[in-house]
Structures are given as structure tokens and as C-alpha cells.
Amino acid sequence: MVKRTLSILMAVALCVAPFPQASAATAKAGATCTKLKATSIVKGKKFTCIKSGKKLVWDKGVTVKALVTKPSPTPNSSTQVITCPKLDSADQAGITQIRANALIGMSESQAEECANLLNWGYRVGQRDSEMFATTRDYRLDRVTVVVMLGVVTRVDVG
Predict the structure, then answer these.
(1) Ramachandran area for residue 137 (φ above 0: left; ψ -120 to 50: alpha; else beta)
(2) Of 93, 3, 97, whose CA–CA distance to 49 is shortest?
(3) pTM for the complete prediction?
(4) What's the number of CA atoms in the CB half-sphere (13 Å) around residue 124?
(5) Which of 1, 36, 67, 82 could cross-link with 105 by S-S, CB 3.0 to 4.6 Å?
(6) Where do the domains of the chain lie, and which CATH numbers do they carry?
(7) What DSSP string describes 13-61?
(8) What is the C-alpha separation between 58 and 33, in angstroms, rounded?
(9) What would the pLDDT profile of 28-76 be if each residue is shown by its tens digit?
(10) Is the dihedral of CA 143, 113, 41, 131 positive or negative?
């Protein structure tokens, strides 16, 4: 009888327990982060996850410039030129976080096109407040992006 009551109480407690919100993952100077050297752009500032003592925390942030896209040469076309890094043979061995960060500030479609041009695997891990299920396998040939309001705000390799 006691075990059954305890089981019911545990089930109720788990159902009532608050779930972490997507906003809790938002970078803020001094807040804890989960992956060393991960980057996130919030309100025009780029935060990087650094190690402070034994803890991982977001740095104070650096102001970033908005991505400027130039119209395509054809006047009737509404597409825009994507400024992608040049194809590098090093990408075949593994994408570096620095190269992956070139996608930050691009629209979702521009980032996907750029990743395809560079032969990178591409997936969306979060779009606005909707988080998608992803695997925990660490692949150096793939990027996972976070898209807010149609713009890539964070890129993780793997």
C-alpha cells in the first residue's frame, strides 16, 4: 500500500514539475552554458561559451554587424547573393566552428544552400520556440542551426 501511494505521488510530481523553456537556453552574460565554444546571438550581441574556473558560462558578448546581402546582377530576379566561405578541402575532414559560424545571420534558406554548396550536412535543431528532436551522434561533417524569425542565430558542429 505504501509503495503504491509513493508511486502515485512520484507520478503526480513528475507531471506537475516545470519543464525547461526554450527561453532558458537564451545566452546571457554569466549564465551557464552546456558546450564549450558554442556561440549564440541575442539582441545583436554574439555570446561565446567559455570556461570560467570549472564552470561553462557565456562571455560578456560582442556586438555583431548585420549581414549585408547584395542583390543579384539580374534586375528582374528577387534572389540575393549568398556570401559563403569558399570550399575547403579541410571541410572533408571536419567542419571547424569558425567556418560554421559564417552561417550566422543568413536566412534559413541561404544557410541551407550555403551548407549544400560546401557539402556539409545540415539540420535545424530549433525554429523560433519549437525545438526538434536530434540525435546525439557527433558528426564533424554536419551543422545544426537555430533559426529565430527566419534568421540563423546559432550554429553547432555535429
Answers:
(1) beta
(2) 97
(3) 0.47
(4) 19
(5) 67
(6) 26-64 (no CATH), 66-158 (3.30.10.10)
(7) HHHHSPPPPGGGGS--TT-B-SSTT-EEEETTEEEEEEEETTEEEE-S-
(8) 6
(9) 888 888 888 888 888 778 888 898 888 999 888 888 765 555 555 554 4
(10) negative
